[in-house]
Amino acid sequence: MATIQARTAHASTTQIQIPTYDVLDHDVNPIFDKHLNPYPYTMQNYRASEQVMKTYDAVILENEYLQLTFLPTLGGRLYRALDKRTQQEFLYTNKVIKPRMIGTRGAWFSGGMEFNFPISHSPTTMDRVNCTTLDHPDGSASVIFGNIEQLSMMNWKVEIKLYPGKAYMEQRVHLTNPTPKENRFYFWTNTAVAYNESVELIYPFDWCLNHLDAKYLKWPFYQTYDCRKASEIPFAYETFGKLMNHNFFGIYNHDERFGVVHYADRKKVKGAKFFSWGNDANAKAWNQSLTDDASEYIEIQSGPFESQMVYKFLRPHQTLSWREYWYPVSNMNGFQYAEKEVAVQYEITSNSIVFTLAATERFDHSCIQFQLRGQEQQVELTLTPDRNERVTFMLDAPIADDRFTLEIRCGSRTILRMGEREEFVHEYPDTAIFEDSRSVMGEEDQEKLYKMAELKESLGLYGEAIERYERNLAQQPDCTLTLNRLGQLYLARQQPELAVPCLTKVLRYDNRNSKARFHLAMAEKMIGNYSKARRLLQDIAGDAEYYQASVIELSKLNIMFGYWREVQGNADELLRAGDTYSRTLLAISYKYDGCMEEAEALLRDAVGSNGNQVPLLTVHEHILVARYLLGKSEASKESLIQYTQGDERVLLPIALDYQEMGLHQDAEEIVSLIEAPTMKTKIAFAGLQRASDEAERTVLLQQILSESLDYVFLNEPQLIAWTERFKGTDASGKLNYLLGNYYYAVGRFEDARTAFETAYDKGLRYTVLLRNLGYKIYYQQDCNLVRSEQLLVEDIQINGGNNVDSLLTLNQIYAVWGENERRKQIIERMKQVDNHSLVLIAQVDAYKAMGEETKAWEILNTAEFENWEGKELSGPCYRDFVIHMAMKHVAEDQLTEAKQWIDLVDQYPRQLNYGDSLRTPLSEMKYYKAIIYRKLGDDQTAKALFKQGYLEASQAEIFANERSHIYSMLCLQELQK
User: Which of 85, 572, 599, 791 could anchor a disulfide with 590, C-beta 3.0 to 4.6 Å?
Assistant: First the structure.
């Protein structure tokens, strides 16, 4: 065992080098119609094919027991976690950064610990996030990550903290919604641990759920597989606990003699999950794809909700926070119970029970008490993280169904009490009375309009949600739940004129509904009725659900009107809100009221007397901005820039907030700190609202519109309102284009169509606009192939054919029309795109259809394919081609050549990054292989293959599609001949 150093903890910054396949330029198109609707983020689907040694900024957090390495430029990922006692890495460390198409935006890499908010995988998992390190007076040290996410401008913070003398890492999560609207979210910590066949999954589930079944299952079995044994999990599989019975879960690697324990209050952190790629060829392919050494891992995850199908809504100005703990254990043959302070394993013989105790901190003179059948035994010893302790209690008779308890006390403190309760039940969880956390919804759920509407809304499918809410209102016109949600959705889509009647109707039915009154105030404010909005907020009583939010929004209006004393009159309520945003509003009122000392005291107290000793809640962009604006000192400016790096995505939302409160000079000060301002910043603060006449306004507008449109996607309410106001004065069409993107993202499809067509009519020929019109509007929505083709050809002619969506759509159109010559031109142009993997399948299919099989076969055997997780298409593409070639030789009566081809049908080249899952439907492959073997006279092999193809229809684990059923029936017909 390694020598233990002095009792201390420390955080430091350094640089490390890691072999990396870099993510290159992002896709120029906004993400539309993708899972979870991550607009305004763009796809990260351009990855270098060659590895380079890349230098990363890193944060090292360590004490005498643990050493943790974080990467701020990769989402704050905990990259490496070392147990210094054994010199063993207790999380899985991927020796290479090798992104693959798994994340919400595409690129994602495996290993370490990833923090996901507000959707998964986090949109910033491959981006830089704000970061700081802290050394505390008590000897502890922290690293804090956070950001303002771009989907809805919510703020997240994760603090990882190590204490001197303690062998666990503390994770504190703090989520804040500083906006006046409800925003969907979830949060999951995704932790990778190394996999081998000895890994045991230790989860105190009673019932559980997965991504395959619409019902809850009894742990630990799925079909005949014991999910506690990772080696028994055959294919990609995940499980979530339902109604967790204890506060711990984890894994133990018996071959490597180490494990990982997670501990949290299950009242706050209900979610406990594991994911395994399984043990089939698909699993091997993914591990090969994600690494350079084919190393394997399993994910163990925690979060506040029971499954990753559950997205909820943070109320306006609501905060949510909790703590969880992670620690390694070793040399104890697993564990059967755990608290934050100690993990326990026991072994029973005929005459004794032996406990192994792994403590995470020192407990001197602890009393270990064992109770069985009314008899007590106890010993006294000192527990320490430096070593495990083994305690033996003798038995006068074997333990059968007898309950025993183990209690550990240190002085007046109870460290652990194990076995005092048994909560496992066999009663099926009733989804009517327990929270429904299923990942898969049954058919009967589809008829529950409100339930399905809320689910669609939580997944970002706003158009589908509104359609169901409106259908529900047609059946139940006075449903206040539906009216409230519909009104809020209209607000989120910048349609206050539609929100007002919905929310007013709620109040006419339920006059004390503070949610409706609050959002009606926000709608009136959006329309410009500030005085009415202020009166509505004043009318929300102190006992109401939305009282705290109303105080904050009322304070913002009072600041806009210059009613500083009104804000200060709510000082107690603002400070009671528990977040730094409300504190900054109070500080602003003191500043503008001339009470500088009071403002300074508020912000000084928030950050502590030592600028480096900052509690979690005050390592916050709003506080840092307010401190800078108060005195504009170089020190406060340096702190703000160091934390945010002058990132527009962080500073612009704060500046817009100040602008909304009428603090234009402050807003411009914030904007001046943005390192690389885009058109968005110039839209916000070109000063158009202060232009003295039309001529001056025109000049300012032209300055804005001269900026590049690349990667500019509006999502901020203030920018949307401004752009709608001035779009009529823009002759270039750029503002209409920007609005069209936003409208499409929030499900306002007809508005999007109008905006895009208006931009086109004004003469704009930007590649994303032409793609949106040609692909999204005319191809997908209208099925107008003629108009679609015209627009996409225009895109290629003007913009050089770099927009992959345009090329792929034209290929599909020409395939439908049978225009092979024009199709060849498009396929040849595809060779020029930066990310060749995006077009490989289209090229193979096209060459096959046009009789140029040699070119298709060369691609299949030489090019590296990228697959999306769950949509592994390189294998089916390869199979289809091989079957095509085999049957082509059959048609030409070349049976020997046909057999040579069909025998290759499941021999996938390595660079396809593909392997068949045990769930993959292969009846089509079996059918054609059997046909050829029968023609060759091998009836026995043919019959066996036909039988395998037919039986696929009855194998529940196979994710059968329509083709699978068709070929299963064809196999049956052949068997009956």
Answer: 599
The model's pLDDT over 805-853, given as tens digits with 9 standing for 90+, comes to 999 999 999 999 999 999 999 999 999 988 899 999 999 999 999 999 9
- Report residue 745: phi and psi, to 5°: -65, -35
Q: Which helix (H) or strand (E) holds 817?
A: helix 804-817
Q: What is the C-alpha separation between 625 and 644, in angstroms, rounded?
A: 10
Quote the DSSP letter at residue 26. P
- Is the preceding omega at residue 921 within 30 degrees of 0, hence cis? no
At residue 31, the pLDDT reads 95
**What are the residues whose beta carbons fall under 8 Å from the beta carbon of 830, sequence distance 6 or more?**
807, 811, 836, 839, 842, 843
190 φ/ψ angles, rounded to the nearest 5 degrees: -105, 110
Distance CA 235, CA 258 (A): 25
- Report the distance separating Cα 447 and Cα 211, nearest Å: 21
Kindly give the pairing relationship between strand 312-314 and strand 319-330: unpaired
The pLDDT assigned to 445 comes to 86
Q: Is 243 left (phi over 0), alpha (psi -120 to 50) or beta?
A: left
Which pLDDT value is given to residue 700? 80
pLDDT score of 3 = 42
Query: pLDDT at position 702, please?
Result: 84
The whole-number pLDDT of residue 424 equals 72
Whole-number Å distance between alpha carbons of 890 and 960: 27
Which two tokens mark 68? 């943790």
Look at residue 895 in the predicted model and tell me its pLDDT: 97
Question: End-to-end distance of the chain based on CA atoms, in angstroms?
Answer: 70
Report the alpha-carbon distance of residue 829 to residue 843 in Å, rounded.
10
* Six-digit token string for 944: 């066996």
Q: Tell me, what amino acid is at 750?
A: E
- Helix (H) or strand (E) run with residue 37 in it: none
Judge whether 167 and 328 are in contact, CB under 8 Å: yes
pLDDT in the model for residue 613 = 42
Q: Which two tokens stand for residue 588?
A: 């602003």
Q: How far apart are CA 78 and CA 113, in angstroms?
A: 5
3-state secondary structure at position 56: strand
**CA torsion 966→972→976→977, rounded to 10°?**
50
Cα 359 from Cα 339, distance rounded (Å): 9
Cα-atom radius of gyration of the chain, to the nearest Å? Answer: 31
Q: Three-class SS of residue 877?
A: helix
Handedness of CA 737, 738, 739, 745 (dihedral sign): positive
Q: Which residue has the tokens 């009322």?
A: 554
Structural contact between residues 231 and 277, judged by C-beta atoms closer than 8 angstroms: no
Cα–Cα distance list, 336 to 10, 271, 418 (Å): 32, 19, 10
Residue of 535, 533, 477 whose CA lies nearest to 509: 477
**pTM of the predicted model, to two decimals?**
0.95
Tell me the two tokens of residue 424.
């496992």
Q: Tell me how far apart the alpha carbons of residues 66 and 222 are, in angstroms, rounded to a whole number.
A: 36
Q: Which residues in the chain show pLDDT less than 70? A: 1-6, 578, 605-618, 686-694
